[in-house]
Structure formats: C-alpha cells, structure tokens
Amino acid sequence: MRIERAELFLLRLPLRRPYETSMAVETHETHVIVRVEDSGAVGWGESVANETPWYSGETPSTVWVLLEEVLVPHLRGRTFAHPREVSEALAWVRDARMAKAAIEMAMWDLAAKQAGVPLSALLGGTRERILCGVAIGLHPTLEALLERIEEELRGGYRRVKLKIKPGRDAAIAEAVRSRWPDLPFMLDANSAYTLADAPVFERIDATRPTMIEQPLAHDDMIDHAALQARIRTPICLDESIRHADDARKAISIGATKVINIKPGRVGGHAEAVRIHDTCLAAGVPVWCGGMLEMGVGRAHNVHLASLPGFSLPGDVAASKRYFETEIIGEPFEVEPGGTMKVPAGPGIGVSVLEREIRRLALGTAELR
Ligand code: MG
Q: What is the CA(359)–ligand 1 centre distance, in A?
C-alpha cells in the first residue's frame, strides 16, 4: 500500500444545537477530511481538531499545514506492508497527534479496503455491536438539562455523559441522581478544576456517578492520583493520555481507573490499539470518546470500539443528533438497547459522499 494521491478537504458544518463545555461553546465543527488513493482503492480519514485550540493545541489550520508540508510528503513514495507502519514512519514528528491521526486512519481504511475486510477485523475487533452513550453539553438551566436527558433516554441511550464546570457541577449530579436513582451517568470536566476543588468532588461522590472524566489539568497525572485517593468514583483520563506509555504510568500511580480512548486524539488507530492493549492487560476498562466527528471519523470510532477492551458505552452516538448534513450514505443510528452495528463492508464500511464533500469544501488541496 502506498499513497498515489492524497487530497485534503476543509469542511465546516453547523451543529444542530450549540455544544457547551467548560472551555468553549461550539456552534460548528470544522474538520479536515483526508482522502488517499492507491491503485483505484480509496481511504478516508478525518481530523478531530477543534476550531479553537481549547482541547489540544491543534486546530484545523495547524492540521492542514502539517499534512500538506510534512506528513503526506514524508509518507509519499513509501510502500507499507501494514498500516501499523504508518504510525512508525511518523513517530519522529513530535506531538501533532490530530494531524497524524487524520492521515494514519485514512491509511487503515485504505488497507482494509485493499484486503477486502472491515476495518474492525484489521484492528482486532470482536464485537458486532458496540455500546453507545451520549454526551450532553452544558445547558442554560438545570430544568433544560433534565428535559434533554429525558429526551436522550427515550431515544434509546443507556448512559449519559454530562459536561460540568465550576459552579455548575454538584447540583447537576444531585438533580440527576434524585430524578433517576439508577441511571448510569458520568461527568466530564475537561480540566476545569484544580486539586483545591477536591471538596466539590467529595460532594459529587455521594451521587454515585459511574466516573468523572478529566477533572484536573490536561497534562496532569499526579494531582489526579491525589484526587482519586480521596473519592470512590473512578477517575477517567482523556486529555492526559497521549499514548500507551501515558496510560501505563497513569494506571501505575493510581491516577485513573478507566481510560477514554479517542483515536483522533492519540495519533490514530495503531496508538489507540496500543493503549487498549495496555489497559486490557492491566484490567482497566476503556471506552471510545467522541469529538463531534462527522460521518468519516464516527465510522472509524465505531470500528475501534469493537475491540474487546471497550466494555463501557462510548460517546459514539447517532450522527443525526449533531449534524443535519451527512457526508456518509449510511448514517449511524442507535438501536433499542443502546447499541450500534459495526458496518460489515470493507474498510470503514460506509459510502463516503464524495460529491457532497467536494461541493461543501471551503478549501481543498491535492498532494500528488
Ligand atoms: Mg472528555
């Protein structure tokens, strides 16, 4: 497998409703879509960098420049026997994990299509259906949030993840627990707190959330270990886990009991599988997070989440929840029981609406 031709597309799609986290309010998602071609086969990838660098230091612009000037030129002309080798070939590039993931994942799709197998099979997946959950942003009032949760539960989701931020935290957890005594819910703080806020988490602890995701700094493990020692609720790291070695260290110091794996955050599928394997060996459950992916990135996540260690429902929800515009022909739907089918066709197993992507693109680049 090699890159005969690569193309980049910049897509900006409106979200059905604004998505508020502790750090930003998003009304659109702007992602770089990567198309690679070899001997008539086509692979697709999608970068998950946000419009502004609030989640990681990367943005669609930095991803674009790196792909165009560094990553694709470095890969072009090489032949790869297995897509795993793509991540090895890019290992010399520091950070830039979202840019690397966009091309790396496109190469996995390409390799699976050339082999005529679903991506899940190439990755080592064992599930035909994955467990889904839904992530809900901050809402203007507690009543609006509760109403929204009700709506999602009616839609078939089994667990909800709620964003929190200082001042809008313990009261949310308490209201949810009193309304739904048995609902598995989790909280995501996106690094909005410090260890001085431990009393807030001790109060939340009493509401028995299934986990609290990334409460402290995005680059921390030490304070997370200290906080974990004070609460029963498992801490789940997201931003802090950049690669498998981070996972190993975080587990060994007790900073995390669950890990959120996002292939788009960690440089692609090969690293995501390494993190998964590290966690599986340590008995730490994982789940697949989301970055409000469009259809291409969402399909990649569904395949990854078919690996055996993904034993907790992920943030892989139906695409129509987020976007009106679809870039794939078979949008993902959640089925009763809160599961989603892993596509069985070759590669990501969905048809990418290439004409639609070309029509919508705000920018394109062809890298021959
Ligand atoms: Mg998160």
A: 32
Please tell me the distance between residue 342's alpha carbon and the centre of ligand 1 in angstroms: 23
Q: What is the pLDDT at residue 321?
A: 82
Residue 250 has pLDDT above 90, yes or no: yes
Ligand 1 centre and the CA of 85: distance in Å? 28
165 classed as catalytic:
no
CA 190 to ligand 1 centroid distance, Å: 6
Would you kindly state where each structural domain of the chain is located, as residue ranges? 5-116+350-367, 122-341
Phi/psi of residue 345, nearest 5 degrees: -75, 175
User: Predicted confidence band at 68 (pLDDT cuts at 50, 70, 90)?
Assistant: very high
CATH 2.30.30.40: does it fit domain 5-116+350-367?
no
Active site residue 163: yes
Each residue's pLDDT tens digit, 7-32 = 999 999 999 989 898 888 999 999 99
Q: Do domains 5-116+350-367 and 122-341 have the same CATH topology?
A: no
Active-site residue, from 163, 165, 249, 341: 163
Ligand 1 centroid – CA 296 distance (Å): 20
Question: What CATH number does the domain located at 122-341 have?
Answer: 3.20.20.120
Scanning the chain, the segments in alpha helix (DSSP H) are: 60-66, 72-75, 84-89, 97-115, 119-123, 142-154, 170-179, 198-205, 222-228, 244-252, 263-266, 269-282, 295-304, 354-360
Q: Cα dihedral angle (157, 295, 330, 336), rounded to 10 degrees?
A: -10
- Residue 124 is predicted with a pLDDT of 98
175 burial class (0-12, 13-18, 19+ CB within 10 angstroms)? middle
pLDDT > 80? residue 336: no
Query: Which one is catalytic: 113, 262, 320, 341?
Result: 262
